[in-house]
Amino acid sequence: MALADKVNTLIADLQAMAQEHSSIVLANSLGAEDMLLSHVILRNKIAIDIFSLDTGRLHPETVNLLSTIESRYNYRVHVYYPQAEATQNYVAENGINGFYNSLEARKSCCYIRKVEPLKRALAGKEAWITGMRSEQSPSRAGIDAKEWDEGNGLWKYNPLATWTEAELWEYIRAEHVPYNPLHDQGFPSIGCAPCTRAVQPGEDVRAGRWWWEQREGGQECGLHVAEAPVTILK
């Protein structure tokens, strides 16, 4: 399918989602995929709200995109933050970078800073949208464009599931979609600053996420996987 046709299909799909669900939101991680989706939604005035999670450990370049969205599209993204007490307890017990110590400690940090805020963001919603693509990693291969999110109890849409990396960037550059400058510095996937590094040529696009775990953690934080309950380290 030509890119122009894919874009028209994306617009139509997003409009259909907005018509089907009275409360549907886009989770904007401020990565390239979600910036593209935000651009399409805001430029076409589609009735989909947009939120983002600020973990408190993001790169400055990532946080600055929130201001860019405000000035470019005249839209203020709803931002959710970790619960202060949970964060303080975690740091007090584990240290400021305690997530390096074990997989359990890292997942606990991800839960406090990402998963719990996401649950608040999705509370009362009928559906949510992500920028996940099948091509991103083995753990995301074969994802469906629409799936039931059992953990959060609502529909989850992945409208870019079949988009390639080349198509993504062709559209971003053609439409001058704002994006994180770290993408031009070898960061295809960007999370918290202490947990993200640039990737080397030939590496998986998510190899820079939690690299010290040597793939034992599946390179996911818990937002998009059905996991067993996380033990919260305090």
From TrEMBL:
Gene3D superfamilies: HUPs (3.40.50.620)
Cofactor: [4Fe-4S] cluster
Molecular function GO labels: 4 iron, 4 sulfur cluster binding; adenylyl-sulfate reductase (thioredoxin) activity; metal ion binding; phosphoadenylyl-sulfate reductase (thioredoxin) activity
Localization per Swiss-Prot or TrEMBL: Cytoplasm
Record Pfam families: PAPS_reduct
Segments traversing the membrane: none
Cofactor note: Binds 1 [4Fe-4S] cluster per subunit.
Pathway membership: Sulfur metabolism; hydrogen sulfide biosynthesis; sulfite from sulfate
Catalytic activity: [thioredoxin]-disulfide + sulfite + AMP + 2 H(+) = adenosine 5'-phosphosulfate + [thioredoxin]-dithiol
Database matches in SUPFAM superfamilies: Adenine nucleotide alpha hydrolases-like
Protein name: Adenosine 5'-phosphosulfate reductase
Binding positions ([4Fe-4S] cluster): 109-110, 192, 195
Example of a GO biological process term: cysteine biosynthetic process
HAMAP family: CysH
Keyword NADP: no
Annotated function: Catalyzes the formation of sulfite from adenosine 5'-phosphosulfate (APS) using thioredoxin as an electron donor.
GO cellular component: cytoplasm
Keywords (A to Z) from UniProt: Cytoplasm, Iron, Iron-sulfur, Metal-binding, Oxidoreductase
UniProt-listed Enzyme Commission number(s): 1.8.4.10
Domain Phosphoadenosine phosphosulphate reductase: 24-198
Active site: 221
Top enzyme category: oxidoreductase
